[in-house]
Fold this protein.
Amino acid sequence: MSADPPPIPSPPEGHPYAREIEAERLGWRDIAALVRSLAPAECLVPGYYRKPDWTVRDVVAHLGTWLAEAQSQFERISAGTYEGHHVDVDALSAAFLEAMAGQPWEVAWVQANAARTRMMQEWYGLKDPTDEAAWWIRKSAADHYGEHLGRLREWTAELVERRVA
């Protein structure tokens, strides 16, 4: 199946977001394990969500695009150019889904891992905790994974069970 995502090093000693980074690492590990349990064709089967239909590719693309957005926002925070935010989460999610629609499974998986790597690099660079950084961390990392892991576990189990039937 998919290659293991590259290992992300532990945060520097005393990093202000060390606890959140560790939660992200564990959450991504769980997502990657579920994804690796599937064949590429299974990642394209609709049913993760209905109306609209989502596949494993879609949820991975969704997570990956939010990781990419967080990386961009962390970069702005670090550079002192962040202007605050008013984020329409639903509209942004819809735009991200549309942007990734129809991409092959491999593209979605590589994009998500690349976005995660870049997001982690920028996250490690955040030296001072801020409310804005904390919002992007919650929206893009472990809390966001948690919103999807339960259903991903169910859907993955169903897809694996279909092999036997």
